[in-house]
Amino acid sequence: MKNYKFLVPILLVALLGGSVYKTYSDREKINKQYDNDITQARQNRKLEVYVNAEEDYLDALKLKDSAKLRAELGEMYIEAEDLRTAAKWGESLISEYPKEYVGYEFLIQVYLEQKDYASCFRIKDEADGLKISSKKIEDIISDIKYEYYLEGEYAQVEEFSNGYAAVKKEKKWGYLNSKGHRVIESEFEEAGAFAKEVAPVIDDKGRAFYIDNEGNRKIVIDFVDNIEKLGYMSMDNIFPVNDGKKWSLYSLDSKKKIAGDYDEVSAMGNGVAAVKSGNKWSLIDTKGKKVTKDKYDSVVMDSKGIVCRNDRIFAKQNGYYYLFDSKGNKVVKTKFDDARLFADDGYAAVCVDGKWGFVDKDGKQVIKPQFNEAHSFSNGLAAVRFTNGWGYVDEKGNKVIATGFDDACDFNEQGKTFVKKDDKWQVLTLYLYNHES
């Protein structure tokens, strides 16, 4: 930044306007002097004699104050590379002229120059609150919509679930909340996803139980012997249990086994779970009854162990994956080499001929297969792997967050996700959803 010693414009605001008409009685003289000051200010600005230009602008403002002229002076501060003064001047501008769009345009531009994206979105919020908009404001916000920052450092992470995410640090697991703040310290040997305000964990003594969102022991399964692992607690209060040999599904309400003993089981989701005996999978309902007589070579589970979401399931038969509904009916005849479960009401990732694309709930292709790997869409964005690493695309397939990550997770509703680089996981946060209003 060049070393210009500008006046302190914020202190001069009080001197602007009003007093001129006590000094000049002749409006024509005032207009002439104003024009001269503006002409001189612009000439000095063109010559980069910024200190003199500032004085000329301020003289003109004392004669005729306006948001437009203040913005012009502010633009000169940007040219002089004094962004700090420009920001202060811009804040005073919107304070004095809160209903003039030019002030918000200028101030957002200043913060853009500073790469202070949080302040850009804050000013946009203020403008929206006053129902002020302009093409320039919208264009700037559109350009920085996916700007982000990274924080934290973890050895392993799990996806955000119901407001929390399990993270591993210093060989123990704890939890972050949806804002990325640590709320449960790293003290568990294993930790699962939150559901209904509880999550399955294993402590340092090998005991498995459910904790609440403060880390307190909440549910102890005392009606099951030999618990090695606990799974995701469904909305139906049904959960998977491993006894060291087999998996079963139990009901917390009846305190009885509803299905077992299987080689593998999924968590219950949308009233459906998958169970495996030998080499084949079947679908069962909340009472443990089979949904269909069909059997599958494989089923697609998400990170929580769920196989059904949005009434949709991906399962493998005769070498290919198909899209089924929760009753086991095939939604479309389209074959997929691989697939990812729907994460929300967005699109699901599917693999065809070695490349990943996306389909909607009806199995219709919405983004053609073109990526090396992909996750399903979550909150409007999908993690995809390009040649040079993982990044994110929007629902039109446009790359919106640069690639280069070694791995990536799904976005939560607060605009946060996890990305991996150089063997460490960090929280990636979008400024769009995380700035002071």
TrEMBL record:
Q: Per its UniProt record, what Pfam families does this chain match?
A: WG_beta_rep
Domain of life according to the entry? Bacteria
What's the name of the protein? WG repeat-containing protein
Species of the source: Agathobacter rectalis
Lineage of producing organism: Bacteria, Bacillati, Bacillota, Clostridia, Lachnospirales
